[in-house]
């Protein structure tokens, strides 16, 4: 797949405008699509309206690359483009100009074709975020789902705040609730104008639970810094033994050091420490979660219990999800008699 930047518009230039190769996967494809509204099977004929690329709808990226896309693909696989019967297909000399760059659109439009989804490993964090924003903007839900999976798999440890904001803005509640404990220690001012009002109110209530909670810095130093010699390895003092595989030990040693730094440098609350440990373990490769590494799993469980003892909260803190549900129910009770709840929910 290749795409190059279009030449500057110059009357003396004879170079043809470059196009993305995305549509060459299915230049004359015929596929079956199931209409969810009528449960009827439609045979869609994607005969090559444009003999070279096969697509009759022409888009232009922000960096001047042309994309020839089949209109029926857009009609059935996205919600952000009008039905083909309601538009006059644009031509190469007058394409639909989009604000996204060619790399983002190259990945995005692949999700509208009957093929295996593209591998997103080549995209860095910024690339996946751009793709997620575009997928939400144009209603290509399959692409958005893959972006969320990729963000959860690769970036939740290093880009927690940015992913949480994305989840809040686009309604990915499961991801939002997973990341909430990792961010509850941050000042409320960091979330103003970044998350919707309907989530900011529950977030402020959730945040207030931990306002007076002491930060377990001494516990972090005690349990995550103290080490003992085990053969030729240094392992946490709380561990009963060491893993038989040195690279497993090195993985967990790096994880524990990361926990210590984050706990101290970011002033993590007890709740945030527990969530950090849980998310680290869930994201760890399966080979380092086996029976040979049970002492590290035991260490994690012991750490969470120890940190929870330092909390000044006498009862278990309520989840962010609980406050969101409570706030929604209150809005329903207040707004439904006025006929305004739908307006609130949509915004």
Automatic annotation (TrEMBL):
<dbReference type="InterPro" id="IPR011333">
    <property type="entry name" value="SKP1/BTB/POZ_sf"/>
</dbReference>
<protein>
    <recommendedName>
        <fullName>BTB domain-containing protein</fullName>
    </recommendedName>
</protein>
